[in-house]
Specification:
It contains seven helices and seven strands, in the order βββααββββααααα. It is α+β, with helices and mostly antiparallel strands. The chain has a seven-stranded mixed β-sheet with strand order 2-1-3-7-6-5-4.
Length: about 350
């Protein structure tokens, strides 16, 4: 069963708006900053030690992707915000991992919050992590809780010049990042679908507490997925319809494609939720039917023994003058009568299809 974590948002109580404090679990010890600068003809990639090394990339004619893995370092977030003119309240949102996926247009740049999903190391639960994007004309800055492998195929395409990403601007890079996150949702959905099929088989063959635990775990995963996908759909739709100089008309069709993917995933999530609710009902019905079967068997046994107990009780009385009490074949006769009673009752039960 997935562990439930309650974020300590109470740490913000009483602080002034825009106070930078990390809310959430620290996923890595030290923040990592990487630069990927490119245009159609060249690409430069490096990992930098200090945040100041990223400052010269502001205003270049190329497209620059500054990725920051680890959002717990207040100093790094503050320096990035000062140099790239990011509003202090947005910096506060970046460090607060409890943000709902959203998109805000600030004219000079776009602020986007997304959720990436992945299975943990044990593979028994889904974990959600926050990704924040700052998108302006020449730079995309991504803030992640830790380094994620889901963006590696995108980096590889940029390195090798595959696809159209090297020929497009920052809006297309933002689309590619969002698309990579949504593609990972399909992987999660596929894994959940396989788990549902497995539990469906167990539900028919051998329903038990382990099956119930698995169904409850899947329902929790579907809730996490739904909380990430539902607002993500609004974000992508907003980007598609946004009238901003930062989003080129040629990129709208790509955002529309991602939007259709989010709708498809949402439909699948709702279908799986209905299936899991039905599976839970089937489980409860199966347990109830098994209990009814046990009760039916016990009732039949008790019903059979009622007349046998009566006969044994009658001939167990200690009266001196009783018919057949001293008869030589009385014992065998009593057994014969009792067996005959059992046979007649079993025949009657079977004729009524009770057994």
């Amino acid at each position: 069963m997935p562990k439930k974590r309650v974020a300590k948002t109470s740490k913000m109580a009483g602080l002034a708006p825009g106070t930078l404090i990390h809310i959430g679990e620290q996923k890595i010890e030290r923040s990592k900053i990487r630069i990927l600068d490119y245009d159609e003809t060249r690409v430069e990639e490096k990992e930098i030690r200090t945040v100041e090394e990223a400052f010269p990339f502001k205003g270049k004619p190329t497209v620059t992707w500054i990725s920051i893995d680890g959002i717990h370092d207040k100093e790094i977030i503050e320096k990035i915000g000062d140099h790239f003119n990011i509003h202090l309240l947005l910096l506060e949102d970046i460090m607060n991992t409890n943000q709902r996926p959203k998109m805000e247009d600030f004219g000079e740049y776009l602020f986007i919050v997304l959720k990436t999903l992945s299975h943990d190391e044990e593979g028994d639960r889904i974990s959600a992590e926050q990704v924040s994007l700052i998108v302006n004309r020449d730079v995309v800055i991504s803030f992640q809780e830790r380094e994620s492998p889901i963006f590696e195929p995108l980096r590889e395409r940029i390195r090798n010049g595959k696809g159209r990403v090297r020929r497009m601007g920052t809006d297309y890079l933002a689309y590619s990042i969002i698309d990579a996150i949504v593609d990972e949702y399909f992987v999660i959905i596929e894994n959940i679908g396989e788990d549902i099929e497995r539990f469906e088989d167990n539900l028919v063959l051998d329903p038990g507490p382990r099956t119930l635990k698995g169904i409850q775990s899947l329902r929790t995963e579907m809730l996490i997925l739904r909380k990430a996908i539902w607002p993500m759909r609004e974000v992508v739709l907003g980007l598609e319809r946004l009238e901003s100089a930062l989003i080129q008309e040629s990129t709208d069709i790509f955002f529309r494609d991602v939007y259709e993917h989010t709708v498809q995933i949402m439909d699948t999530v709702e279908t799986y939720r209905d299936m899991l609710s039905g599976m839970l009902d089937i489980y409860l019905s199966s347990i109830s039917n098994r209990l009814n079967e046990v009760m039916k068997v016990l009732t039949i046994i008790a019903t059979i023994f009622i007349p046998l107990t009566f006969i044994a009780g009658v001939y167990g009385m200690n009266f001196d003058f009783m018919p057949e009490l001293k008869w030589r074949y009385g014992y065998a006769f009593a057994w014969s009568v009792m067996l005959a009673v059992v046979g007649v009752m079993l025949y009657y039960f079977r004729k009524k299809k009770w057994i």
